[in-house]
Amino acid sequence: MDARKKKRKVLLMGKSGSGKSSMRSIIFSNYVAKDVRRLGATIDVEHSHVKFMGNLTLNLWDCGGQDAFMETYLASQRGNIFSDVAVLIYVFDIESREVDRDLDTYNAIIQALREFSPNAYVFCLVHKMDLIQAEHRQRIYEERSALIRSRSEHFRIDTFGSSIWDQSLYKAWAGIVHKLIPNLTVIERFLSAFAKKIDAEEVILFERSTFLTVTSVTSEIGELNPIYDRHERLSNIMKAFKHCAARNTLTTPASAGFVVMHTKTPQFNTFLGRFTDNTYIFLVVPPGEAAYNCAVLNTMLAREGFSKSAAAGRTDGFPLPPPESEDANGHAT
Amino acid sequence: MDPDSEHCLSTSCLLYTPAYKTNARLSLEIILQGTNHVSGSVQPRSALIPNTQARDAKPRLLLMGLRRSGKSSIASVVFHKMPPNETLFLESTTRIQKDSIHSFMDFQVWDFPGQLEYLEPSFDLEDIFGSLGALVWVIDAQDDYLDSVARLNRTILTVQQYYPGINIEVFIHKVDGLSDEFRTDIYQDIVQRISDELSDAGYENAPVHYYLTSIYDYSVFEAFSKVIQKLIPNLSTLENLINTLGNNCGFEKTYLFDVLSKIYIASDTRPVDMACYEMCSDYIDVIVDVSELYSWDHPERRPKGDQIQEAESHVVLHDDTMIHLMEMNKYLCLVSVIRNRESKEKRGLIDLNCRTFQDGLNEVFSRRWEQLEETNHLDGGALT
């Protein structure tokens, strides 16, 4: 309906049983890790549309991985499947016994992709990392991703180790969506200006339904935080609580959510609230009642500015106020 | 048998084993450790008297039952925050495991090996049961339980005879794998068998309570909460305080949680609502986990103003339910569910009321601690 709406075609591929549908269900359909046992094999291609951040819609093609399907993708369906691809996500099962064969299939897919959408991003997830003993994980992962890289033709690929049982899944997918969001630099510019104004240690934008990190800004002091995977862990924590809330208020996880969350501790204060229709904003500010209240107030003001300019339809995707109005908000403190 | 008065004297020679530091030392608690002396309620206990002869005055929870019934799993899940599915790898217990739980009130958890014949004369019953506390008997509901029930009966009879002050709590455990009907059948059967035996022996109203438990849901926490609550001397005062607070603030349900173990030591007297309990308990997790991520220490990190020292948090959910959490002292936090529209707008008043409650709470507990401290000092003086 809207010409500016962006649809991005995302192909999810990999060998049968490697965990494609499992991770899709967890990230986009609010499954919890142990529920994925109920999923059956994907037959042919399952299409789903995921609204993500304003006008960005992910058109997700979950391609069943059995050999027979793979052959049709590469032969009769070739043009249909591989044209207009924005992102290819290829999932490798770390436990697979036929590594060479997997890589051959992967290479065939990559060649088809080069033919029809040479500009696509390629992400490779080395999945089920939880099955490897912790002390070997890093080494095995690096060996495997080197192998994958060597078979990727001219594509510059990103690899992630992932597991549905911990936060690594969120890290991988946050990395993927980060690449897909239009005008991300604008958002980031705004966020860093905003963070400076309210003196925040960290400002994170989360997508509303998936709780994936869209982007984040960290101050110099915030950078000293020794916990590097905190964004993924936050996604995991908040999503787990969302499930609990859904279970206990008798709704579906999709419709459950938070309106606002305030936390004050002697070491830091945080605020989580709705920002745009599809995002939550998460602030971490140093303790201090007055400063915290100001930060929250300013966030609200900034949000109003956002929705106003969204109504005016000036900007694309993520409605942004011009830099001056940001300043005005800042001066309100 | 020692007469009671003498018993009291002997227990006042306190032996404080160094507090067991569990993995679950929560950061929420750690954050406050440096600052909490301001509130003056929880003072560091001093004078660890190295006296192996003396008995510990802390209430004691004795975990007993046949081997492989799940005693150690329960202890690990509740007191050490072990994820339930990891308990599969626990080795069987070969000697009595004594854990000191250092919390709002100190108590001990003794985990007995299943094969131990403690009723034999070579065991000093006085040493095991002599202190006030509760006997938690764990029965594996998925196994043949007749043996266990028979042994439990023998134990109850012995304990009742000599130590009638000990509460007997029967955990009918591992019920997660059973259907609802089967659960009730087993429950009734076990209750019937035990009460028959007891009334045959002439004990009509023995303090035996039964719980259906599983480590895979909240039932074991709920059961432990009930067990612990019976050991708190000022429970009714606490409940009154919470009731007053809840009524004045329009709380739907209020729990006073022990942050470390997530068992609740008191709640208002409205009917227990499992949904509320789950949400409150999970919300504590959220706050604790988030604090873990952001409370690193660095000299460059400076506060920007004044703030109350105790952590405080609230969340509003999609259906306008509000969960309000306030830290009371190092160990306790008050979590309440608010659905009343009017009271949600009066957050300031709620905060104020909670602070008042906090003062009341600390008074209730501090008097006991002061007494303890005094006896401690006296004993310390006498010994040195």
Write the layout of secondary structure elements.
The complex is a heterodimer of chains A (333) and B (384).
Chain A lengths: L5 E9 L5 H9 L16 E8 L3 E8 L3 H8 L3 H5 L2 E9 L5 H18 L4 E7 L6 H17 L6 E5 L6 H13 L3 H14 L4 E6 L5 E6 L11 H19 L9 E7 L4 E6 L4 E7 L3 H24 L10 H9 L2
Parallel strand pairs in A: 1-3, 1-4, 4-5, 5-6
Antiparallel strand pairs in A: 2-3, 7-8, 7-11, 9-10, 10-11
Helix pairs in contact in A: 6-8, 7-10, 9-10
Chain B lengths: L3 H9 L14 H7 L26 E6 L5 H10 L16 E5 L5 E5 L13 H5 L3 E8 L5 H17 L4 E7 L6 H21 L7 E5 L6 H11 L5 H15 L3 E6 L5 E4 L6 H21 L17 E6 L4 E6 L4 E7 L2 H4 L2 H37 L1
Could you explain the architecture of this structure?
Chain B: Component of the GSE complex. The complex is a heterodimer of chains A (333) and B (384). Chain A has 333 residues and is an alpha/beta fold. Helices cover 41% and strands 23% of the residues of chain A. The longest helix of chain A is centred in the last third of the chain and has 24 residues, at 289-312. The two termini of chain A are 40 Å apart. With 384 residues, chain B is of the alpha/beta class. Chain B has two domains: 3-229, 3-Layer(aba) Sandwich (Rossmann fold), CATH 3.40.50.300; 235-294 and 309-368, 2-Layer Sandwich (Beta-Lactamase). In chain B, 41% of the residues lie in helices and 17% in strands. Chain B has eleven helices and eleven strands. In chain B, helix 5 (146-162) packs across helix 6 (180-200). Residues 1-56 and 380-384 of chain B have low confidence and may be disordered. The A-B interface holds A 199, 201-202, 221, 224-227, 230, 233-234, 237-238, 240-241, 244-245, 247-249, 251, 255-270, 284-292 and B 28, 31-32, 35, 275-276, 278-279, 282-283, 285-287, 289-296, 298, 300-321.
Strand order, main sheet of chain B: write it out. Answer: 2-3-1-4-5-6
| Gross morphology of chain B | globular
Could you tell me how far the N terminus lies from the C terminus of chain A, measured between alpha carbons in angstroms? 40 Å
Radius of gyration of chain B: 22 Å
Q: What is the tally of helical segments of chain B? A: 11
Low-confidence stretches of chain A: 314-333
CATH architecture of the largest domain in chain B: 3-Layer(aba) Sandwich
**Count of domain modules of chain B:** 2
What order do the SSEs of chain B take from the amino end to the carboxyl end, as H and E? HHEHEEHEHEHEHHEEHEEEHH
